[in-house]
Amino acid sequence: MSQSNHKPIGVFDSGVGGLTVVRALMERLPHENIVYFGDTARVPYGTKSRNTIEEFSLQIVDFLMQHEVKALVIACNTIAAVAYKRIQQMAGNMPVLSVIDAGAQAALKTTQNNHIGVIATSTTVNSNAYARAIHAHNPDTRILSQATPLLVPLVEEGWLEHEVTRLTVREYLKPILADHVDTLILGCTHFPLLKPLMKQEAPNIELVDSSITTAEATAQALSHANLLNQSQQMPDYRFYVSDIPLRFQTIGERFLGRSLEQIEMMRLG
Amino acid sequence: MSQSNHKPIGVFDSGVGGLTVVRALMERLPHENIVYFGDTARVPYGTKSRNTIEEFSLQIVDFLMQHEVKALVIACNTIAAVAYKRIQQMAGNMPVLSVIDAGAQAALKTTQNNHIGVIATSTTVNSNAYARAIHAHNPDTRILSQATPLLVPLVEEGWLEHEVTRLTVREYLKPILADHVDTLILGCTHFPLLKPLMKQEAPNIELVDSSITTAEATAQALSHANLLNQSQQMPDYRFYVSDIPLRFQTIGERFLGRSLEQIEMMRLG
To answer: Which positions does UniProt annotate for substrate binding (chains A, B) (predicted)?
Structure first.
């Protein structure tokens, strides 16, 4: 066991959505220290250009590497879709986990008819990253992607069961349902909060929640690299954000599923 | 007439919404040169903290002052709500126009029952800026403010007539209608695109579109300061943005009402 085992896992997102991944990591890997960065001053990324997303993402990775993380978890589909390769180059030998790889592999294990749907931000859909990740394993899988830009603001407004959200989901799922996909990847960390409503609107489709599959992939990668923390001490969690807006605590805790403490503000760029 | 008359008017916003104000300025003041800055890399501001909004806004003003503008038009309600005073300090003797002041004065002229509603972003509503601007002229006016965070993404999705948008507007207008306001300020530059739908949902309420009133206020301020451009040459329009995302052209032209040319990218901060 090397000195690195006690080092934290670095998890990052454009905002608070990545806290759903932190939550899954806390449950799956209860002894690991975690440092989180959410770029709340510049959120959302999903409607911005590839160059801008890449530039912002590399600033975050630089910040996390200054915290001597032992692994990086890209907890934002948009960042993973656009900047994964550059992040891997910066990370060197360090394991880099991506919500997209984890989600793609989980969907491939789930599908029976080899027909997978993806809902995500416009930038993630346009990047074609899920299709690439899935086709790398099985080139014969059919994939239908749908940009769903309104779901993030609906979740942030807290309208998780609202009629407006139901109609929006229904509209977005129309092509998915018409095309008989049997497995739907929730390609944005905000979407797991809409699972109850989506299950009602698409009862015959299996939903892939990449926060859970990313936590599992992280556990496997750390184990494989002999980097699991064997300490039985209480883990240390640190949360950095580039802005602390109104209602941040409320929204953040909804994603994390527990109280948010030790938040520090840090402006990048 | 001084040397300053040929200088451009500086107009700015957190993103593309301020182009509705540019459009109104082009119509009201067809001989004026205009330089626009939209902070598309960090949009939206309306859900961010006051400190962050102020910091970003002053960076924009600094950029516009380097372009030797003769007047500043704050074409973003959130910026006007939070950073107006600091911007005025930076601007020195230069006229500074604000969509909030213009909207407040137009609403006061419109209301018959002295009961005004405001719909705006969360930050604008929480700043209480409209109430302050209205009460400075008439302390007896009753004001009902409602944060409507979903309307910006609905407009950007282009769902201007969609059933989902109608239900969302209906939900947000419930307290406004119940309280019998007779005049509603559209306190965000995205909202004028929803005027047709809002007129159907609130047929007895007068809607105040601050882009038009801001253009009028700008014309008066320039005239008063003897700064109107007397040149009959074709005016020069320059558009700077901090990011050029997918569909920028489409969305921008929807707001501007004409083709968008001479767009340059400029990162601040």
So the answer is: 13-14, 45-46, 77-78, 189-190
C-alpha dihedral (A216, A219, A225, A228), degrees to nearest 10: 180
Alpha carbons B161 and B158: distance in angstroms, whole number? 8
Dihedral sign from CA coordinates of A190, A64, B241, B68: positive
Distance of CA B232 to the CA centre of its chain: 27
Catalytic residue among B97, B186, B188, B194: B188
Considering only CB atoms, which chain A residues are within 8 Å of B152?
153
Q: Is B258 a residue of the active site?
A: no
- Please report, for residues A42, A136, B228, the alpha-carbon distance to residue A244 in angstroms, rounded to integers and kept in the order given: 12, 39, 42
Q: Which amino acid is at B207?
A: L
CA-closest candidate to residue B156, choices B44, B29, B2, B269: B44
By CB atoms closer than 10 A (0-12, 13-18, 19+), residue B20 is buried
Interface test with A, best of B54, B148, B150 (most A CBs within 10 A): B150
- Residue ranges and CATH numbers for the domains of chain A are 3-98+212-265 (3.40.50.1860), 100-210 (3.40.50.1860)
d(CA B256, CA B192) in angstroms, rounded, equals 12
Q: What is the least distance, in Å, from the CA of A154 to any CA of chain B? A: 7
Residue A253's SS3 state is: helix
- The shortest C-alpha distance from A149 to chain B (Å) reads 7
Q: Which residues of A touch B78 (CB under 8 A)?
A: none
Interface test with A, best of B47, B59, B244 (most A CBs within 10 A): B47
Query: What are the φ/ψ torsions at residue A49 (nearest 5 degrees)?
Result: -75, 160
User: What are B5-62's pLDDT values in tens digits?
Assistant: 999 999 999 999 999 999 999 999 999 999 999 999 999 998 899 999 999 999 999 9
CB under 8 Å to B234, separation ≥6 — which residues?
Answer: none
B162-179 average pLDDT score: 97
Using only the alpha carbons of chain B, give its radius of gyration: 18
Catalytic site residue from A11, A75, A76, A154: A76
Reference A172, options A202, A134, A208; nearest CA is A202
- Asked whether the predicted pLDDT for residue B258 surpasses 80, the reply is yes
Which 8-state DSSP code applies to residue B114? Answer: S
pLDDT digits (tens, 9 = 90+) for A196-239: 999 999 999 999 998 999 999 999 999 999 999 999 889 999 99
Is the predicted ipTM greater than 0.85, yes or no? yes
Q: What are phi and psi of B83, to 5 degrees?
A: -120, 10
- Which of these is catalytic: B76, B151, B185, B241? B76
Kindly provide the residue ranges of all beta strands, DSSP E only, lying in B39-179, ordered along the sequence.
71-74, 96-98, 115-120, 142-147
CA distance A136 to A217: 17
Q: Is B13 annotated as a binding residue?
A: yes
State yes or no: is A188 an active-site residue. yes
